[in-house]
Amino acid sequence: MPPKVNFDFDRADAAQLVSSDPIGSAALNVTPVSLTLKSGFLIGSADVTLSPTSALSVLAFNSLDDVDVDGILMPAGEPPRVLTLATKGAWLKYRLEANLNAAVEGSLAAAGFRIDGSAGVVLADYRFHRQRSETVRDGFLADVASGVRSAFDRAAVESLQPGDAVAIQTQGVIEAKVTVAVADLFTTQATALLALGGAGRALGFSIAAGATATFDVRISDEFVITFAGVTADTWRIAVRKARTRKVVAGVAAGIEVAATDPEQLTRFLDEIKNAIVGQPLAKARDLVAKARVGGLNDEEQQLLSLLLERFGIADAPDRVQELDKRVAAIDEHVAGALEEVANTKIKIGFTYEYARIAQDTQLLQMTVDLEHLRAFHGDVIRGDVGKPIASIARGTPGVVVEQYLNQTTLDRTKSWGFTLGIGKWVDAASVDSDKLVVVTRRSLDDHVQESYLGTRGYEAHWQGDKCQWAADFRADMRAYSQSATPTVPEFDLGLHLALSASRDKLSPDDIDEYLDFAGCWGIIGDDEMADRRAQASEFKGTAQDVSINLTIGDEIFRLLLPLLATATDGDLAFALALAMPRQPKVAGLRTPSERLAIYRRVWQFYLTHPDAGSEERQANAAAILQAEGQAVLADVERNAPRPHPLLDFTMAGRVLLDGDPLDPWRTFRNGATVLQQAIVSSAPAATSLDRARRSMQSCWAQVHHLRAIGALLVDRSRTAGVLPRIGRSLTITPRKSDGTKKALVIVA
Fold it and tell me: pTM for the complete prediction?
C-alpha cells in the first residue's frame, strides 16, 4: 500500500480561517471553513488514487440540533445511528471532493470496483473530540497531523475509535439479495404464464409451502458508504442513498433483477405446466399422439374434447396438430415465463420499497467484529454487499443486522401487491393510518424525487369472522422532477387491494367464503368453482393464512381513470349486487352470479333515486324480489330493520351496516376525476395526489364496498380489453410448514 500523505495546505490560511474558539462553544455553527489544498496532493490505497477537486471543508458539531448534510452524524433514534450526536464531546468533520482513478495500470472495473470513477467521489472523515474545551484550531492541527483517513484504507478503518467514522459518497452499483416466498411471486401479475395457456382461465397449482427463491438485485445510484467505530472491538458498516450531486437524464436509480438460483423456480414447473394445460402434461401428450393415429377410446375422446375447448380450437380444421403445438410450446416456454413473472415481481417490489426509503435511512446497517470488518471491507468499498448479507442470513457470530431495506431483519413479511413486505407499510385498524407520508429526495441542484406512502389498513368482521384488508394508493417518481415542483404525470400510479385472514382451523365454509370473494374479483368463474373447491379442500381442518389480491399498475390504472371518472351513479349497481355476502342456503344468494341476477335492479334503483326515502327504496326492492320469485327476501327488504336471519344479506341490511354507498361512490369517482384532470393538465402533485387518495379510499372502508370496487375495476378492465394485465390472485398457505405441506396459488 502506498504511504499515507498528510493534508498539505497553507498553514497561515488555516490559522486565520480555522476558529480558535473551544470546540464545544455555543458560538460555533456547522458552516464549513474551506481550506485550499496544495496541488499534487493524492490519497493512495492498494487499488485507487484520489486527487482533490475541491477545497477541504472543516465543520464542527457540538449541539444536538446540528445538521449533518451527509446524514451520518444524527440525533439518537432507532435503529442506532451510524454516529449519534451527544453533548459529551464534539466532532470535527473533514469533507473533500476528489477524482478517482485506478492506482495501477488498468481500470476501476478491472480492480473489482462497481463505482463510477468518472463521477468523482466525496470523502468525509469524522473525528470525535472528548474535550469540549479544546480549540477547533488545536483539534484540527492534531487531526491532520495524524494522517489522512480514507474509507478505502482498511488500516485507517480498523483504527477508528468509538465516535469516529470515515465515509465515501460515490455513484455506482450496490449488489444485494432478496429472498421471498415463491407463493408470493404471483401477487402482482402473471401475464406471461397466463398468455402461454391462451385459455382465458385462472391457473391453480400447488407448491411447497416453505419454498423460497432468492434474487440478485443490482441498484445503480449514488450512495454513501460509511465505516464507524462503535466499541474497541466493534465497527458499524452502513450503506444509504446519497443526495445526488448532478441530475442526468433517465431514472434516479436503476434496478436490475435476476434469480440467483433458477432451480429454485424450475422445481415447480411440472405443477405449473399441468395447471396451464388443465391436466397432466404427459397425459395430454399421450392423447395427442393417440389422436394422430385414431386410437382414442370414448373416455380419451372426451378428455381431448375438453382440451380443445379449453384452448379455443375445437373448430379448427387441424385442431389436433394445433393442440400438439400448444402443448409443446407450454412445455418449452414455461420456465422462461415463470422467470419473467418472478423477476417482474421482485423488480416492482424492490423499486417500490427503494423509492420509499428516506434519504437519511440506511439501506443496510450492521455491526461487525474485527474478523468480519477485514473480510467485508474490500467488497463493501467496491459496492458489493453480498457477503455481509449472506453472513447475516446465516446468523454468523460477530455480524449483527441493524437495518436492511427499512427492516431490522432480512426476512420478508407477506408480500402483497407492489411490495416485498407489506408489514412495515400498513398497521391494520390503526387510527393513524389515514395519512399520506411523502418521502422526498433532492439533488444538489434542487430537483426532486418523491414517493407517497398512501397505504391504508383496516380490520373488521365479515360474515362473522375477523379479517384484515389493505388498500395501497401508489404514487412514486422514477426520475427527478423536471422543475422544482413535481407534477402528477411524473409519477407512477397504481392501486392495490387485498384481503387477508388467518384461520386456526380452515373449515369447508371458510373455503367457500374465500372462493366466493375471489369470484367477485373475477379470479374464479362460476364454471371453475367446483374444481377450485376440490383443490382447496385438502387444506380444511388445518391452520392456514389466506390472501386475495388485486393489483393495477401504472399503465392500466391511467387507462382506467377516464372510465371511472365518467361512470354514472347507476354503474356501481352490478358491483354492489355481485359483492353482497354469500348465503349458501338461500337460492339467489349462493354465488356472485346469482346475487347479480336478482339484486342488480335493486341497487340500480337505490343509486339512481337519491331523493327517495328508505321506505320507497325498500318497497321497490321488495317488488323486484317478489317478481324474481324471492318472497322471503322481499319480505325482509320490506320490513327492515325488523330483525331477521337474512337481514345482513339484503340491500336494506347492507345499508344499515355499511352506510349509504352512494356518497362513497361519488367521492371515489371524484378522486378518479381529480387524478385524470391532474394528468391531463400536469397539475402539481402536492395537492392532487392526497386529495385523490382521500377521495378514493371512501370505497374501501367497508368489506362490502371493497368487494364492490374491486369488482367494478375488474369489469372496467374487461371492457377496456386489459383484464389479463391486472394482477389477481388467491393464496392459501399453511401457517407452519414441516417441508411436506403445500400452498395453493390461484392466479388470473
Answer: 0.81
